[in-house]
Amino acid sequence: MNKNFAIIMYFLVGFYLIVIPFWPVWEGLNPSNLSLLALGVFAIMGGVIVLYDKYTFSLKLYKLILALLSLIEGILIIDIFINSFTHNDFIIYIILMLTGLLTIIFIIAIIYFLVNKREISKIQRGFELIDQSKYQEACDYFDKYVKSDPENPLAWSGKAVALLKLNKYEEALECSNIALDIKLSLNKFLVKKTINVIQLSSKGLALAGLKRYDEALDYFDKVLKMNPKYLVALNARACVLAKLKNYDEALKIINKAQKLSPKNAYILDTKAYILSGLGKSDEALQYYQKAIDINPHNEEIHYNKGKTHKKLQQYNAALDCFDESLNINPNFEDAVKAKNVVMKLIEK
């Protein structure tokens, strides 16, 4: 079953579940009417089909809810068919009506999910390029997107993140401001919270890049009030606190983020940075290595690991890290400078 067909099928089953609670009224609540039996059987079949579908894994929770509602309605309406219309059957019928109401709520929720996924997927490629350290390519991708759709706040936010990676902090801040100023269209208004989280995060990151740390923290706090489990904001807030030498508070936040996503390379990298600041360099190196094992293609993690080796006067190990960083991104200026310093130290 392909994805589009599966989603259409979910909506049809949902619509069916909304309609059938009213069918007994139209049929005069006649328990001998075989149409009730057919309705119940079809409802159960709908639930089984939804559970059987293995294509749309991203809709797993919605599938389970829809299947459960289908089974409940099927069993209840068959019970009405089997038994005479007694007081107990009336209670069952009320429950049946409630399942129809729950199905309406379910349909609204799944529409929200699909719109949200569609909006995010439009610019997903750009963020994938950032994860691959292809920052200029990502910037070009977002640039083309904002030219074709200048009212897309997610594209402007994505461009801001790409510019940050290119150390173009003022331009990044400008893009994040544009993203925040855009009035959302109806389809984007349905996912306003998701978009606002990304908009505010990108501005916070831009401010952090400009070393305006207190302002950056304000934006990350706004994000975390909206979504306390948003990893980007948790990670960024911990990183900024570490830059302000507030390592203990930073460690609390990054530990929370790590519990939410234990195999996130960026979170492990930040935790290593914090541990290094706390003087726990050996433990920091372990976390850097864990981050590299998960994402070996991020030049910043190799660079950060090299700085810790340098701090421990392990210059050859530091040089290897800086070389690896530059193999990934030859234009990484910080790594170039650090490599030159380490080479001079080795020559002494």
TrEMBL record:
Keywords, ordered alphabetically: Membrane, Repeat, TPR repeat, Transmembrane, Transmembrane helix
Transmembrane intervals: 7-26, 32-52, 64-84, 90-115
Domain of life: Archaea
Gene3D superfamilies per the UniProt record, alphabetical: Tetratricopeptide repeat domain
Keyword NADP in record: no
TPR repeats (start-end): 197-230, 231-264, 265-298, 299-332
Protein name, as recorded: Tetratricopeptide repeat protein
Organism ancestry: Archaea, Methanobacteriati, Methanobacteriota, Methanomada group, Methanobacteria
